[in-house]
Structures are given as structure tokens and as C-alpha cells.
Amino acid sequence: MAPGLYADIGKKTRDLLYKDYNTHQKFSVTTCSPHGVAITAAGTRKNESIFGELHTQIKNKKLTVDVKANSESDLLTTITVDEFGTPGLKSILSLVVPDQRSGKLELQYLHAFAGVNASIGLNPNPMVNFSGVFGSKALSVGVDVSFDTATSNFTKYNAALSLTNPDLIASLHLNNHGDTLVASYYHLVKHHSGTAVGAELSHSFSRNESTLIFGSQHSLDPYTILKARFNNYGMASALVQHEWRPKSFVTISGEVDTKAIEKSTKVGLSLVLKH
């Protein structure tokens, strides 16, 4: 089976520990048509500021066009073509208006024993990125490299290792030019209830600092999920997410510093409506 792309290494653990945790107020509404058109209006309130986004997606066979406009007057257009000339190959063209130097062409290729992603900026001195994963679904290794042609320097070079079986996923990342080592672990304890535990240990060699975070999740029923996490700095978070209709979710999450209980607890609310 295919090992996937570099971004997939450790994704199960990251989703368990970070996905859907939120201390702001978020709201989004998506309307889909039977002709492959989806329109999403979203808003986020952070402190006293409100940020909005309008997202339109059009799908026609192997072609997908995404257009996003936000409250900062940016317009992001992404054109994706699946099975571009050969099975397993995908091409992605993206551009942010009014930034004329933001254009980027990206190619993704998935093979039974490899997953490759390459991109290049569409400007005179582009940033070039390459990432590749080689192996199988059970054991794979990957690299992620970025080269700035304007300065002739490697701005990023990372490496990763992944070990996967039906109940356990372990990964190891070496990031930030070899300065940061990240080890992650995910274990599915009970299939029928979706009960899982995970942990991530990150160590910076230059600062000689380590961060350890534990997390777990459990399904109360087919529509309700509970999640909790705790790190070595005393920050504790929890959330409950309920799917009250197909693909429509309400999520309530909270965060508290256990070493400073006198501080107010941060609470976030997210509502996603799709019809």
C-alpha cells in the first residue's frame, strides 16, 4: 500500500492532539449544489477582532477550482487537476491576488511505494520545495527540502520516519535544520468506541528544552466525541464535539493553566453547518 505524502507522517497524532481545539468563536455555513458547486461563508472572532472568509469551490470531473476571499482583501485561487496525464499524478496551481509574486505550481504523485510532492514559485527567483516518502504503509522514510534560488540557500531540510500497524502509529521527525527532534505516538485502544491515546515529545537542542503533550479521545456515541490533552507546562484542554446533522458540527472547547488557576479559563465555540 502507498505510504502517502510527507505531510501524512504523524498526522494521526497531530489530529488527536491539536485538531478542533479552539479558544475563539468560529462559525461557518456551507451550501452545496448537485452540480458540484459549494459556497462557504465563515467568520472568526478573536478578542475584539472579527475575521471573515468566503470560499467557493467548483468541481467538474477531474478539475477543482477553489476561490477564497477574506476580510483582508486577499483573493486566493487554487486550480487542481487530478490524474494529470497519468494515474496518481495531481497538479495544483495557486495564486494570491494582489500579490503577483505568490503564484505557485505544485505536483503530487502517489505510487505504491512512494509519495512525491514538488512545487516551484512562479516568479523570477522562486522558492523550490521537494518532499518525498518512500517505503510502504507499514514502514516509510521521508525528506522535506526547500531551496531559495534568490539567496542560493536551503531554507528547510527535514527528515522523518514512520512505523504503522492497525492499532499503533509511531513517527520521528528531525526539523529546523536538525535542531528539533519530534517523536510522536498514536494508539487506537478500542475500535468500537474510537478510544485512542497519543503523545508528542519535542526537544530543541539549541535551547535544551523539551515539550511533552499527552492526549486522548473517546466517542460517547456515533455522533459525540470527547477529547482532552495536557502538557508538561501545566496547560490542560478539553473539548466535546457533536454531529447534530450529517457533516454539521458544534464544538465547545476550553483551556486552563493548572499552575495559575486564578486566571480565567479560555472557552471556544465552533459551529459548522453544511446543507
UniProtKB/TrEMBL annotation:
<keyword id="KW-0813">Transport</keyword>
<dbReference type="Pfam" id="PF01459">
    <property type="entry name" value="Porin_3"/>
</dbReference>
<dbReference type="GO" id="GO:0005741">
    <property type="term" value="C:mitochondrial outer membrane"/>
</dbReference>
<protein>
    <recommendedName>
        <fullName>Mitochondrial outer membrane protein porin 3</fullName>
    </recommendedName>
</protein>
<dbReference type="InterPro" id="IPR001925">
    <property type="entry name" value="Porin_Euk"/>
</dbReference>
<keyword id="KW-0472">Membrane</keyword>
<dbReference type="GO" id="GO:0015288">
    <property type="term" value="F:porin activity"/>
</dbReference>
<dbReference type="InterPro" id="IPR027246">
    <property type="entry name" value="Porin_Euk/Tom40"/>
</dbReference>
<dbReference type="GO" id="GO:0008308">
    <property type="term" value="F:voltage-gated monoatomic anion channel activity"/>
</dbReference>
<dbReference type="InterPro" id="IPR023614">
    <property type="entry name" value="Porin_dom_sf"/>
</dbReference>
<keyword id="KW-0406">Ion transport</keyword>
<dbReference type="GO" id="GO:0046930">
    <property type="term" value="C:pore complex"/>
</dbReference>
<keyword id="KW-0626">Porin</keyword>
<comment type="similarity">
    <text>Belongs to the eukaryotic mitochondrial porin (TC 1.B.8.1) family.</text>
</comment>
<keyword id="KW-1134">Transmembrane beta strand</keyword>
<keyword id="KW-0812">Transmembrane</keyword>
